[in-house]
């Protein structure tokens, strides 16, 4: 037979606890039932609208009262009005310069500042890895941006600057040149680079962008008129020739050598190699273990050649590359997977060609990389 339960003594509640609970209930009821009128000030709207990628709109809230709220504005962009011409300067066309950055080179920033294209028409976009080197590079980049945008001469200030951080783990611990260029590291490294390029591109490509200039963070020498020089060709995709400075111990002086081997014309050998490859294998250029016998633009420079001589290309590098915005809007991106056995920038060239856009190179128009680590400039 069950015993009857004894009386239960309730503990007296602290008055302070009751007061806090009552205040919290009142706040919740006010939030749920109170006025739903947006409290976004005109200054906040203006601040958002000042960014070229942020149209002037505020969040839409449902009305719980009798009145009806006006819906947020719909911004329409007529991309047919965006010009992409061989005369971008005269037509004041907007340029987007995009740079994946793992290390910060002061010479890169100095070179950007020397560009003779109006800076008020240039938007800069960067993406950096979440590594120690990436954190260091971000801090140095932010210092230079603050110096230029806040206290620098008006003519040096850019239209806007966007910094992104990668949301994927870096495939390589070290960004040393010797480590980055090992054959065994290329597939994973370039797949990660492709993802970074795509994230940067589709986060920054605005409705008024006419041209995208891809520029590596270690390209520290370009002509100040590179944008106008490349755009004058009116090509969908155009790449200059990339060289690296180095200390020539034989000449006892600084010299230069071909550097970017991803600008090439295909060969029968490479095409046959691709046919025998598995679906996940990729062709890479510049390695003796994988001799493709392609025609490399890096070796076609002529000291007395025509500066603006054009060369049709099947593959391109991303060191310096001017692209019409319509190419990317058409869907051409940087595959992070084997695309016809090509990846990243070379895969981009293949994809663009299949969409009807022909890449072109300028073998006698040079841009420069700094010397290898440890060598003087």
Automatic annotation (TrEMBL):
<keyword id="KW-0333">Golgi apparatus</keyword>
<keyword id="KW-0735">Signal-anchor</keyword>
<keyword id="KW-0472">Membrane</keyword>
<comment type="similarity">
    <text>Belongs to the ANP1/MMN9/VAN1 family.</text>
</comment>
<dbReference type="InterPro" id="IPR029044">
    <property type="entry name" value="Nucleotide-diphossugar_trans"/>
</dbReference>
<dbReference type="GO" id="GO:0000136">
    <property type="term" value="C:mannan polymerase complex"/>
</dbReference>
<dbReference type="Pfam" id="PF03452">
    <property type="entry name" value="Anp1"/>
</dbReference>
<keyword id="KW-0812">Transmembrane</keyword>
<dbReference type="GO" id="GO:0000032">
    <property type="term" value="P:cell wall mannoprotein biosynthetic process"/>
</dbReference>
<keyword id="KW-1133">Transmembrane helix</keyword>
<feature type="region of interest" description="Disordered">
    <location>
        <begin position="47"/>
        <end position="72"/>
    </location>
</feature>
<dbReference type="GO" id="GO:0000009">
    <property type="term" value="F:alpha-1,6-mannosyltransferase activity"/>
</dbReference>
<protein>
    <submittedName>
        <fullName>Glycosyltransferase family 62 protein</fullName>
    </submittedName>
</protein>
<dbReference type="InterPro" id="IPR052086">
    <property type="entry name" value="Mannan_Polymerase_Subunit"/>
</dbReference>
<dbReference type="GO" id="GO:0006487">
    <property type="term" value="P:protein N-linked glycosylation"/>
</dbReference>
């Amino acid at each position: 037979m069950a015993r009857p339960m004894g009386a239960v003594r309730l503990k007296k509640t602290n008055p302070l606890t009751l007061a806090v609970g009552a205040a919290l209930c009142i706040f919740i009821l006010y939030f749920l039932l109170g006025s739903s009128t947006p409290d976004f000030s005109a200054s906040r709207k203006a601040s958002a609208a000042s960014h070229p990628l942020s149209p002037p709109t505020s969040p839409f809230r449902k009305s719980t009262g009798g009145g009806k709220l006006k819906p947020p504005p719909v911004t329409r962009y007529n991309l047919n009005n965006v010009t992409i011409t061989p005369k971008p300067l005269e037509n004041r066309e907007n340029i987007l310069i995009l740079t994946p950055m793992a290390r910060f080179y002061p010479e890169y920033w100095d070179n950007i500042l020397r560009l003779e294209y109006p800076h008020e028409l240039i938007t800069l976009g960067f993406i950096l890895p979440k590594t120690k080197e990436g954190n260091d590079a971000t801090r140095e980049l932010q210092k230079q941006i603050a110096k230029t945008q806040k206290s620098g001469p008006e003519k040096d200030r850019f239209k806007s600057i966007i910094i992104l951080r990668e949301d994927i783990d870096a495939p390589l611990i070290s960004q040393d040149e010797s480590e980055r260029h090992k054959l065994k590291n290329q597939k994973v490294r370039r797949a990660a680079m492709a993802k970074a390029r795509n994230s940067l591109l589709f986060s920054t490509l605005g409705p008024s962008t006419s041209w995208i200039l891809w520029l590596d963070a270690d390209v520290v020498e370009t002509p100040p008129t590179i944008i106008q020089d490349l755009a004058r060709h009116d090509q969908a995709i155009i790449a200059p020739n990339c060289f690296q400075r180095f200390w020539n111990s034989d000449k006892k002086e600084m010299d230069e050598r071909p550097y970017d081997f991803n600008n090439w014309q295909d060969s029968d050998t490479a095409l046959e190699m691709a046919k025998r490859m598995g679906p996940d294998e990729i062709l890479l250029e510049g390695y003796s273990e994988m001799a493709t016998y392609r025609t490399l633009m890096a070796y076609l420079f002529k000291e007395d050649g025509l500066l603006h001589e054009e060369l049709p290309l099947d593959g391109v590098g991303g060191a310096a590359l001017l692209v019409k915005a319509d190419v990317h809007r058409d869907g051409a991106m940087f595959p992070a997977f084997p695309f016809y056995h090509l990846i990243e920038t070379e895969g981009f060239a293949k994809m663009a060609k299949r969409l009807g856009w022909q890449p072109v190179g300028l073998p006698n128009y040079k841009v420069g990389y700094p010397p290898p680590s440890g060598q003087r400039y």
